[in-house]
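This section describes the prediction task in plain terms. A model, or a person checking by hand, is given the sequence of a single protein chain and must write out its three-dimensional structure as a string of C-alpha cells. No templates, partner chains or ligands are provided. The sample shown here is typical of the held-out split.
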Amino acid sequence: MVLADLGRRIRNAIGKLGQATVINEEELNAMLKEVCSALIESDVNVRLVKQLRESVRKAIDFEEMAGGVNKRRLIQRSVFQELLKLVDPGVAPYQPVKGKANVIMFVGLQGAGKTTTCTKMAYYYQKKGWKTCLVCADTFRAGAFDQLKQNATKARIPFYGSYSEVDPVIIAANGVEKFKRDGFELIVVDTSGRHKQEAALFEEMLQVSNAIKPDNVIFVMDASIGQACEAQARAFKNCVDIGSVIITKLDGHAKGGGALSAVATTHSSIIFIGTGEHIDDFELFKVKPFLQKLLGMGDIQGLVEKVSEMGLEDNEELIKRLKQGFEFYSLFRTPPSLTILVHEIVGG
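The expected answer:
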C-alpha cells in the first residue's frame, strides 16, 4: 500500500477506539492487530512491528490505570510515540551553513533518481535565496551529463561537467574548485550510480570523496525496495561515511513505510523525501510533522512555512492564529491559494 493508504488504515484502527463503549484489553489488541497488519503490508520489518506492539502493551496497563484516566487518549498517545520511534533515526539532520561553501556529494544505486534529486535539492535551496550549483561527476552512465545539463538549464542552476574528461575525480575536483572560487554556497556533486557488488565503482566513490572532501554525503534511496534499504545503506556506509539519506518515489510505492523504518535502524538521518516527478515534489523531512500529516492530524508548522514562502509572512495575525492551531474553516476568509494549501496539508 502507498503511504496514504498506510496512514488511513492506522488512523481508522485508532479511530475505532472512539466508537467502543468500553476500552479494555480486547479493544487494545484488536487495534494493535490492525495497526501491525498495515505496517507489515507496507514492508516494515516484522521485528520492528513486534517491538512496537510490545512497547504499546507495556505502556498500557489496565490493572494499574487510575479510574479517571482517559484510556482512549493514553492509547492514542502511546501508539503515536511508538510510530515516531519507528521512523526517527535519533540523529540530528545535517544543515548547510549559508554564507560559506557547502559541498554535498550524492551517491546511490542506479535507477534511484539520484541525478533528478540533485537538481531538486539545488532548486530547493535556490528558491530560499542560496547561490547553488551542480557538478556532474558521473562518467559511467551514458547520457548522465546531458540529463543533468538539461535539468539544470530548465531550473536555471549553474552546472559543470565535461564531455572529454573521463576521470570523475578530476571533474569533481575541478568543478568544486571553480564554484568555490565563484562564491557558491551549495555545491551539489552527482556521482556514478552503482550496484552493491560493484567494487570498482565503490572505490571510485571513495576517491571522489577524498578529492572534494564533502561536508555531507547523501545516499539517495528508492522507496520501492522497502526494508532492503537497510542493507543498501549499510553497504554504502562501509565505503564512505554517509551523513544523510533522501528517499525518492514515496508517492506511489507500497513499501514506503518499510524504507523509512529501515533507514532509521541505520541511524542515518533522512533529510528530504521525493514525492513526485516534478522539480518541486521535494519535501524537508521532519519526523513529527510527517507522521502527523500521514495520520491526518495536519501539520501546523508546515503550513506556517508555506505561508512564509507565499510572501504572507507580514500578516502577523494570520501567522499567530496558525501557530495557535485555530479552526481551519476560518481560513475561508483568507486568499483562495492558502485555502487550497490547507486542504493539501491536512489531506482534505
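For orientation: The mean pLDDT is 81.
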